[in-house]
Fold this protein.
Amino acid sequence: MNLDILLRRHGLPFSKTSHPPVFSSERLAAASHTPGQNVAKPVLVAVGSTYVLCVIPAHKRVDLEAVARAMHAESARLATEDELARIFHDCELGAEPPFGRPYGLPTLMDESLRADEFLVFQAGSHTESIRMLRADYERVAEPLVVAIAH
């Protein structure tokens, strides 16, 4: 998926920044001089035989029980690196963007991300990030907004 094309197709403003390689959402927050609350961290979760992309603030952890409840499932688990690499085959491992739909996945967004006006997230590579209005992100990603982080 070309993230630039996806966002431009929706006619939404965003800025793309190049930076030294970062390998965690917390380091992306530091590199982009952005509070961790504003950095969207995607987490791939397996729910039964399917997957869901959970988007949470960089400084939080996904609550697997809350994800299972939101998906009306008995349990949920973190996806393995192999599963992540297979689904996000066009991204650097660990630099997935927070958009599930282009990969055939539902997206869950933690409700705490709504507290801020903008989001920053990796653009499929460890050296590029995107900053955009949170409301615009929601227009494109169409996430189910629930409490899924602690």
In short: Helices lie at 3-9, 25-31, 64-70, 81-87, 134-141. The two ends are 30 Å apart (CA to CA).
